[in-house]
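Summarise this fold before class:
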Amino acid sequence: MEISLVNVSKRFLQHWIFKQINYTFCSGECYAVLGANGSGKSTLIRIIAGMQKATKGEISYTLASGTPLKGNVYEHVSYSAPGLDIIDEFTLKEFFDFHFVYKQPLQGFTTLKIVEEIGLIKNIHQPIGDFSSGMKQRVKLAQAIFTQSDILLLDEPCSHLDNTGLEQYHRWITEYKAGRIVIIASNDAKEYTFCNHILPIEDYK
């Protein structure tokens, strides 16, 4: 897949968050969108995900076959962010089972295998509301990374993670990034060491 941004700009009220971003993202590559808090990096990846609209400019998506994507981008995207709500009343098993009603897991993965992978098998029947912030972040990352998707968007992925969670994150990206567009929104170097392309959002003010 290829994502092309042409003069993409975003304004809140009278303030331009960023202006005239021209950029192309390609499958098999990893990108870091860098900037301070409030700089617009999270807004940009939500626009790429189809969750928000740009004020100006256009985004086009082209499938690997060369066919322009005309339908819902949602079907091709998996996304994680610290502020993303998860249902506290669900058990861990219920959470993943519900998610995979609407999306497909990566080939070879099931709810049970994902729970084992994130090291929370003993918590599989526990309500997510009882989890620590670090455990919840691992669940959010796993939901995104282990979903079959062409576009993987991760906003501040290592928030609340301890060293074990950080090691898991890097291993998962290394093993499951192939064939995807991976975009990390970050201001923390440890989150994007594997990225071979950098997009500084401050360059578009």
Notes: The chain has one domain: 2-204. The mean pLDDT is 95.
